[in-house]
Amino acid sequence: MNSLAFSRDRLLIAGLAVVLVAALVAPNWMRFLLQVSMSAGLVALGVMLQMRLGLVSFGQGLYYCIGGYTAAMLAVFAGITDIVALAIAGTVVAGLVAFVAGFLMRRYRGIFFAMLSLALSMILYGVLVKARALGSTDGFNIHHLSLLGFSLQGEAKQMATYSLTIVCVLASVMASRRYLSSSVGTVAEAIRENELRVEYLGSSAQLLVHYTYVLAALISGLGGVLFALAIGHVDPLMVYWSTSGQFVFVALLSGTVSVVAPLIGMLLLEVVRMYAMALSPNTWQIILGTVMLAVIIFIPKGLFSVIMPQNRGGKS
Amino acid sequence: MTPIIEIRRLERTFGAVVAAADINVRIEQGETLGIIGANGAGKTTFVNMITGHLPPSSGTILFDGADITGNAPRQITRKGISRSFQIAQIFPDMTVIENMLVAITIAEEANLSPLRPATTRARIERAREALGQFGLADSQDRVAGTLPQGAKKLLDIAMAMASRPKVMLLDEPTSGVSTEEKLAMMQHLMGALRQSGTTIIFIEHDMDIIGAHANRILAFYEGRIIADGSTEEVLADPQVRTHVIGQHAQREAGHA
Fold it and tell me: What is the ipTM of this complex?
């Protein structure tokens, strides 16, 4: 609804596209950093979409993990190695699980929604750590990947998965933006402000929460697939509460004014983490924590509120 | 002719407390029906049951001949009954025009689209027109939560009217509004509602406002209707004078 914010958003998406495409000729480490950040950033985007409805998911790692494990299991156990097919399969499975779970989730708000999302994710964690066939706590590796029948090895594998990441990230960002400006997105956002009024205007708040929950899961599942393809490994940590907490943290730090914000937020987090680890291998968490604290104190409405300020309260 | 709303033997209890008992009412299209009664008499319970906020313990509610008893609020709104609230229900962090656009979007799309943009030129025009009708045109870019009480109430009603309902229920439209603002606000409000041909049912404590705007009154006392008739008849009814106007006068005197 805020046309100024949306036109700035368009510029940010274009900027993101330029950076991602330019990184095709960047050093491997930089491309890998971008690939991992953007994959995880998609999950933070899923969290942010729900935050715009006033819902905080402390268990978004559930769909991140489902996406990643679906792709990995298909590649290892079913011999489906095509990266596009794996991306589609992981996303669809995450969406289907969210569609079913959504019938329960849509009835809850506030802390109950947050705790229930956490509970569902920890159930999957419990199952995965007990599943020896899936490597238990160690998880398992994805060895072979292909694209259109061509086997992918070495740098070709990284370039192919990175290119897929670019396409998926830009598609997700544009789809999210479209959704937020659509009738469903606009009315869903009104739920945060007054669910009673939404119902008395003739719309089902539960249905709109369900829509958003499934969309967030689709995007998070896709993020999980891309992450699994990038590092060639999946493990139960993907669904552990601390992983989900990181997505919430990034979404909060980035703010909800732009669909690009969570992606950039995740990239900044990874960069700070990388340098903190290089600078102080044993106490890097102190540096990371200090930076996060500074952001909370000095930019309470999120990093993006600096470049995309909103002229009203309570929207971050 | 089928009444727009027909209520048969409606009852609502909360444990041992009877909030509504043996309510039978026929409301004709185009009426302006005032509801009066002391606090706790069952007025809001009556409105809440019609609009689906509260399921009745027993009885039937017919709207345009169709049974709507126990329907969800959104279903009832879609069928043509809208309401405003004692405490204005708006989207406080959105601007006034954004509030209106949300209402118009829901009114225009029975099934909301996840792809089609919500804000179109036509909708913005319609929103401006609606705000103009309710005297809110100058405030369209203000954050709704910062409006004065009277304007919030008008916005609440304007949003409820976006679906062009056949029946509009107003729960104390002037509560929280200053005495100076009240009369002017009701003039404006009733003018806008009558223009649309909507049947109006409104709860009100101010007998001057009731006398000025209602052409029929229902008086509630302890969950029952003790008087139903023209404004003059009901306001002159001895029971109403004892149980409603007397208490109201005492309350007014207490406030003075």
Answer: 0.90
